[in-house]
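Annotators were shown the component list below and the corresponding predicted structure, then asked to write short factual statements about the assembly.
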Amino acid sequence: MTILYEPSRQVAQHFAMLVGGDVRTAGSLAEAHALLEEDPDEQLVLFGPNTPVLEAVGFAAKFRLSRPSLGVVLLRHQLEVGVLADAIRSGVREVADVNDPTSILAACARSQDLSRRLSLGGGRAQGGEPTADGKVVTVYSAKGGCGKTMIATNLAITLAAGGAKKVCLIDLDLTLGDVALMLQLQPERTIADAVPVADRIDETGLRTMVSPYCPGVDALLAPVVPTVAEQINRELITEILYLTRSMYDYVIVDTPPIFNDHVLAALDSSHLYLLVATPAVTAMKNLRILLDTFDVLDYRKENRLVVLNRADPRLGVTPADIERVLRIPITSHIPVSRDVSVSINRGVPIVLDSPTHPVSEAIRQLASKRIGAEPTTPKGLKSLMSRRTKR
Ligand SMILES: Nc1ncnc2c1ncn2[C@@H]1O[C@H](COP(=O)(O)OP(=O)(O)O)[C@@H](O)[C@H]1O
Ligand SMILES: [Mg+2]
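Structure shown to annotators:
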């Protein structure tokens, strides 16, 4: 079934005919909401050409987390780049040209196919639902250069414990990823390989995309050509994270210093948010703003871990000062040391290069005390799962 929201009755009729099947039409946004509430299994809402873009944007953003399998497709007379970008960023799956019936039908079909795969009734369930037990940890900071990639790489190696556990390190800094460089891996296989098979990616396929690094650690590297990032959408990342969770004990996600769609997809699927800050006023301010954003997005407080990197007692900023400003406890202090840069320049992560170093010790403590603890359910997956079990 499809909900079609379009104020003009005549236009609504035209598109209802085009889409075919069981279409319920709404003349107002309130009506569309009411129709959606009536059917918790509804998977597609089509916004007609006479609906305000902002309504579609708000609608998609509202249901992005609470109903991840619901697709929103927007029909427009003109496809302006700004409109497209805003819509897609908010969670609209496709924007189709009203004058191109083939592309409208294709957009609806793609959205419905994705919805099917995201919900229990989809193809994956029939083929055997993977047991997604791995823990997803996203390492994030709104600022560059504070040590995200250093922490993500060393943490992945530490958690693998020489091969006792399986860890997938994903480089989501899709335009400027440094994981390959830090691990001295040749990016022959990257996440870009997932683009042509985005609608049918499976475990076997994923195994051909990762680069083995050391016992227990595989890396899914960033594309070599930065423009490929544009072809990687939120659904693909959600899919990859769901799949990797079923294949690995831990999935560590390294991120760019921006709050983009890729980061949101990772955060939505994460059990733990590892937020990196340095003891600098600007980093503190950025982290405070980020924590406020997390509140709005409803990312649970108990799943937030703040890691203070380059902790330096000589700076005069005490951890107590920082905790007071941020109103959140600091989980881990990683000391400042030029040996970190030396290890990065040598291409050997410090936990391997110098396992007894205080930086390696701090990362081990973080891994064993906080990340190895009992798993919790990630926000996005929780809503997905509860919908699945209801069926
Ligand atoms: N604990 C530390 N002590 C000293 N230098 C560090 C430390 N952590 C990171 N660095 C330096 O900061 C640089 C940036 O780290 P990186 O992990 O690439 O940051 P991000 O991924 O957040 O941009 C590294 O090249 C390294 O030289
Ligand atoms: Mg980085």
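Statements collected:
1. The CA atoms of residues 275 and 306 lie 5 Å apart.
2. The chain has 17 helices and 13 strands.
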